Amino acid sequence: MTPRNPKRKSAAPRLPRFSPTRISLYLFCPRAYHLYYDRGLKWSSITSGHLLGGHLHRALQTFHERGGAAEVPVDQLIAELRERWKEAGFNSPEEAAAQLEVGEQLLSRYHASAPEPGRVTLWTEKTVQHRYADFVLFGKLDRLDRRPDGALEVIDYKSGRLKVAEEEVRGSLAMSIYQLLVARQNPGERVYASIHCLRSGESATILRTPEELDEFEREVGEVVRNILQDREMRARPGEQCRECVYPRVCPPGREWLRTHPQR
User: For a tag site, which of 143, 226, 242, 259 has the least CB within 10 Å?
Assistant: First the structure.
């Protein structure tokens, strides 16, 4: 007699996944969240700035994977950008050429900035996540470094900004989530969070205490559970309606804009 196969253990249930972008849209307006994620209505077209940022991220990923400035000459870094450059998405070939020139300048500046002695880039462009009882929190990090003091540092590139302050890093939902995720993957290690402005080379860095991370974890968990329990997804009319693309299909938002004309 052929023995019966032992029963396979049932796979862990597939939990809903939440990124900084998804959570931010709900905080912006639950109705906009519903229209985008549940109804599948497009938010907006990609701007030339987004396209430039994507090209820069890919070039910098290859740059660090190959050993950084010590191994990759600046002309090779620029060549990497040119080889992968695509005009698709830009309004015209002239706009694409102008953005390529900007990208080359930013990469040249980035290459010339001397890395801190003892700093090591561990990886770039990687998605990290943490599983909770009822959802998964995840985010894609631009870069993770090991600092000379042994601590970890999450680095986020901004291609369109010239300045950044510590308060902006601390107030960034995305940076807070990245910091939390890396801390949960590396218990007991200090995790810094930094925003780096590619146009100026300026950066701002913060370190949250374990207690601050615990408090943020409770707060973001509460927001996610509110999303999961929200069956109405009502509009939240206000100033954010001026930035929203959905007034045409959102009567409360459309009415708010009618009664609050731009001065």
Answer: 259
Q: Which residues are registered as beta bridge partners of 195? A: 156, 204
Contact present, 148 and 116 (Cβ < 8 Å): yes
CA distance 144 to 124: 6
pLDDT (0 to 100) of residue 74: 95
Q: How many CB atoms lie within 10 A of CB 186?
A: 13
Q: So what's the pLDDT on residue 1?
A: 43
Could you give the C-alpha distances from 190 to 193, 213, 256, in angstroms and in order?
Answer: 10, 11, 46
d(CA 234, CA 31): 5
Query: d(Cα 233, Cα 98) in Å, to the nearest integer?
Result: 42
10 Å Cβ neighbour count for 44? 9
Q: How far is residue 170 from each of residues 28, 76, 167, measured CA to CA in Å?
A: 18, 35, 5
Give φ, ψ of 121 to 5 degrees: -85, 120
What stretches in the chain show pLDDT beneath 70? 1-12, 45
Q: How far apart are CA 66 and CA 82, in angstroms?
A: 17
Instruction: Give pLDDT tens digits for 98-149.
Output: 999 999 999 999 999 878 899 999 999 999 999 999 999 999 999 999 999 9
Helical segments of the chain, H only: 20-28, 30-33, 48-65, 74-84, 93-112, 166-171, 173-185, 210-229, 251-259
How far is residue 190's CA from residue 108's CA, in Å, rounded to a whole number? 31
Interatomic CA distance for residues 253 and 29, integer angstroms: 10
Q: What is the pTM of this model?
A: 0.89
Rounded CA-CA distance 24/33 in Å is 9
